[in-house]
Design a protein that fits this description.
The chain is an alpha/beta fold. It contains 14 helices and 18 strands. The strands form three sheets. Strands 1, 2, 3, 4, 5, 15, 16, 17 and 18 form a nine-stranded mixed sheet that branches. Strands 9-10-11-12-13-14 form a six-stranded parallel sheet. Helix 8 links the parallel strand 12 and strand 13. Helix 4 packs across helix 7, helix 7 packs parallel to helix 8 and helix 8 packs parallel to helix 11. The protein is globular, with a radius of gyration of 21 Å. It starts with 5 loop residues before the first strand and ends in a 15-residue tail after the last strand.
């Protein structure tokens, strides 16, 4: 009789205590043991000799465009892209059509995820003047990681720009909320810069440092007044990192691989609107500050901000061109390449992509390789040299700003709750994703 369903043999495993060679035994979708196991004790054995086994990446910021804009992305293709990139759980944002503002619209997304999701999933509910007063209930819906607020307009109409509305939203709940911190008033004042220039090279000038700093200062003040913790998404400026370092008792921090990898003005000259995202890619001094904040422990999470548009949409004249790019599939390979180049350790990468998200959002039984946790793994070859190409991208829009980039470090297999969903760049199995569970909803 088999003791286990699967044994991963001889991999170099990133556990909370060490990174060392060991076996992992899996039973009923959970990690049943770590150590050395007789391969005869399981019907399936995966030889991971020479490979590293990391906790599956939890990407806590994606936009999968469903419902309402399935021509550019949907939950099936978005989660396929996640599986291709070693991402085993995604948190999707509420700026779809209709907006995710109610139990009904949230339940609709859960049903779509259960039908087409290749990895596990959770869906934010948006915070707005429309649903304030009920958010303390909505934030605890099954499969909801919390409330998401847009202080500055990006893609979609979900916006809470004034302090009065924000204060009402923050008073209506207790869980950590996520915020896109750009000051809408300053964006409106300065939009003429983008319209006059007509080229994305001024995207980071229109949406300048002060636009981000003002919003971050405002939301930190409001968070303290409400006694509510805040998670500030895709931080891009040196100035914000200094402010956030002094407010770690109330704020957690996300950065994206895009802002860690690309720099202005080169990216806009080379990629045009394909490099256009909100908040924008900035100059080298800001990128250096983000890396310093990672080294100093200010940053808690790396999220992709996967926000695809079709190439036809991106080809519109700036600033009519929409902001956003793919990222869920390239998150881990880009960061593994940074590990190869010596910018961060593998242990720190694991903290930022799995343990950090688990801690920030109180995720139940995910985010680490430990007995009793979900058997979510990204099996990677740290020495594999590959080239990122548009043809490799599983997202519906079919492109990446990193097309043609050579990287060292590649995802060889992805497992969700003990089942392979990708092996050697091929999707396997099918859509068997489930809602992520949170400690508050147990």
């Amino acid at each position: 009789m088999s003791h286990y369903d699967l044994i991963l043999k001889n991999g170099t495993v990133a556990t909370p205590g060490a990174i060392e060679v060991m076996d992992i035994a899996v039973k009923d979708g959970k990690i049943a043991g770590l150590g050395s196991f007789d391969p005869d004790k399981a019907p399936e054995v995966f030889d991971a000799t020479g490979l590293h086994i990391l906790p599956g990446v939890i990407d806590t910021q994606v936009h999968f465009r469903e419902p309402g804009a399935e021509h550019k992305e949907d939950i099936t293709h978005g989660t396929m892209a996640a599986a291709m990139g070693g991402v085993t759980a995604i948190f999707e944002m509420p700026n779809t059509t209709p907006l995710t503002l109610s139990p009904e619209t949230h339940a609709d997304k859960i049903a779509r995820g259960e039908k087409g999701g290749w990895v596990d999933f959770a869906f934010f509910v948006g915070g707005s003047a429309e649903n304030v007063g009920r958010l303390h209930e909505y934030e605890n819906l099954p499969g909801c990681p919390g409330i998401k607020i847009f202080m500055g307009s990006s893609t979609g109409s979900l916006l809470a720009k004034d302090d009065g509305t924000l204060a009402r939203i923050l008073a209506d709940g207790r869980r950590r909320f996520a915020v896109h911190a750009e000051d809408e008033y300053r964006l409106e004042e300065r939009k003429h810069i983008a319209e006059k220039e007509g080229h994305p090279r001024v995207h980071n000038i229109w949406r300048d440092e002060e636009t981000a700093v003002r919003a971050t200062k405002r939301i930190l003040k409001l968070s303290r007044e409400a006694g509510r913790p805040v998670h500030i998404l895709h931080v891009t400026t040196a100035e914000e990192m200094e402010i956030l370092a002094a407010n770690k008792d109330v704020a957690t921090v996300e950065v994206t691989p895009n802002h860690l990898t690309l720099t202005a003005p080169d990216c806009y000259e080379e990629l045009g609107t394909r490099a256009q995202m909100n908040p924008p890619v900035r100059e080298e001094r800001h990128r250096a500050a983000l890396w310093r904040a990672i080294e100093e422990g200010v940053v808690d999470v790396i999220g992709s901000d996967h926000a695809p548009h079709t190439l036809e949409e991106k080809a519109k004249p700036y600033p009519q061109s929409p902001s956003g790019m793919t990222g869920v599939q390239t998150l881990l390979v880009n960061m593994l390449n940074h590990v190869h180049e010596g910018r961060l350790s593998l242990r720190r990468l694991v903290e930022l992509t799995s343990a950090g998200p688990q801690r920030v959002y109180n995720i139940a039984a995910k985010g680490r390789i430990a007995r009793g946790y979900d058997a979510d793994f990204a099996v990677v070859d740290l020495k594999a040299k590959r080239t990122i190409t548009n043809d490799w991208i599983a997202s519906k829009c079919g492109w990446t700003p990193f097309d043609g980039k050579q990287v060292t470090g590649w995802v060889m297999a992805t497992l969700v709750r003990g089942k392979f969903v990708m092996r050697e760049d091929e999707l396997v199995g099918g859509p068997t994703g489930k809602p992520v569970r949170f400690v508050e909803t147990l």
